[in-house]
Amino acid sequence: MASRYLALRQREHEIAAEAGQLNLETPEGVARLDALQAEKQEVSAALLIEEKRRELERTAPAVERSPIQSSHDRAEDRPWDSFGHFLQAVATAGTPGGAHDPRLYAAASGANVANSADGGFLVRTEWSSDLLNKATQAATLAPLCQTITLGDGADSLEAPVVDETSRATGSRWGGVQVYRRAEADTVTAARPKFGIWELRVEDMMGLAYATDRALRDAQSLGQVFADAFTDEFAFKLDDEIYRGTGAGQCLGVLNSGALVTVAAEAGQAAATVVTENLSKMWARLSLRSRARSVWVYNVDVEPQLDQLAMAVGTGALEPRFVSFGPDSVTRIKGRPMLPLEQAATLGTVGDIALLDLSQYILIRKGGIDAQESMHVRFIYGERTFRWTQSIIGKPKLASPLTPYQGASTTSPFVVLATR
Q1: Which helix (H) or strand (E) holds 287?
Q2: Which of 64, 97, 101, 100 is nearest to 79 (CA)?
Q3: Taking the CB of residue 62, how many other CB atoms lie within 10 A of it?
Q4: How far is CA 240 from CA 67, 231, 342, 359, in A?
């Protein structure tokens, strides 16, 4: 089982490395990227199964060994009973005169660091990955983004992109145009225009305190930390994907140069959403993004959705493109609506948005670096645990796209203006 786990990990790194070298300006490159993304999902699913299997093996009741087996059983090779017991051992080792469990130094692997002078110790790669995977799964927006894991020795991603801002003739692919033979006298030489899409990882840090009393209950401690960091990493990542400034953090869609903002209707009441708003938002979504798009909204918007109507003579009808299914999911134009805590309150930009997050790239490096110190909150009888993850993201596009026919720009990211 260990060999399969390592093989899956290796394949995960190979996929990331190959993806980073693809030329996305060719149909072959795009097709290969789609194939790699599909394979990455399969590998991630298989890894999750293997991690669960390994966890079961770690927590399984100990099997009585023969004297010969016991003579080769080193203390540093014994698995931890749980993540909570690991944290408890870290805390004990950080106490003056406390016992140092040899597994703190022998069990670690991967991109982790330890500084025993400051009370820091290595955390097992499996638990680091588990915290990160759970955090991503608990998020609303992050699982919908394209995620690339950087290989060893890399802290940024560079990829050539087509500098295309218009689909008008002479502007497609940044300036490519073809002619009929009869137009030979008017033919002008042209070439594609390229740019560089670049993103460098930044650290995201989680911090928590645990009292000495809480540390006595290892199982309880492990559950509290797992739940706390899962929720907080997920919340923070979604918040940055949606509204991040791009300065030392993700560039959120609301601050992206590619964002399209649909104006309110003439005479529209403040803090409302009307049928015309939704129709016009859909019309501004890029055609290629329609099948992958989702609506995200603040729950304050829900009462407005219940009141949507289409004027018919002196009466009104419910809009046929809005539905509420037996799965308790509202759909507009067939695309699901996801309530988002980070969305703006009703009436302001970002209270409802139409997004294709496959056009948003997250890059991350390694697992989660975990450290502990008894000094920061010493007088309060508490210990400090800190987790750091290198992750960053931004949209693929830098600006909206002018269509071949029509004056209204389109984008994978569409919001409604302040009302």
Answers
A1: none
A2: 101
A3: 8
A4: 56, 14, 9, 15
Tokens standing for 380?
């309060």
Q: Which amino acid is at 71?
A: S
> 347: which 2 tokens?
């009436």
pTM over 0.85: no
- 80 to each of 119, 189, 258, 383, how far by Cα in Å? 19, 67, 48, 21
Strand 330-332, strand 335-339: pairing: antiparallel
* CA neighbor of 165 nearest in space, from 394, 397, 359, 354: 397
Count how many Cα atoms sit within 13 Å of the Cα of residue 390 in the half-sphere of its side chain.
Answer: 20
* Helical pair 125-138 and 27-59, crossing angle rounded to 10 deg: 120
- Per the listing, tokens 């990542």 go with 237
E strands along 106-154, which residues? 146-150
Label residue 392 left, alpha or beta by phi (over 0 means left) and psi (-120 to 50 means alpha): beta
Q: What are the respective helix, strand and coil percentages of the chain, to the nearest 5?
A: 40, 25, 35
Quote the CA–CA distance of 122 and 110 in Å, as a whole number.
10
- What would the pLDDT profile of 46-93 be if each residue is shown by its tens digit? 777 777 776 666 665 554 544 444 444 555 556 666 666 666 676 666
Helix axes 218-243, 83-93, angle to 10 degrees: 100
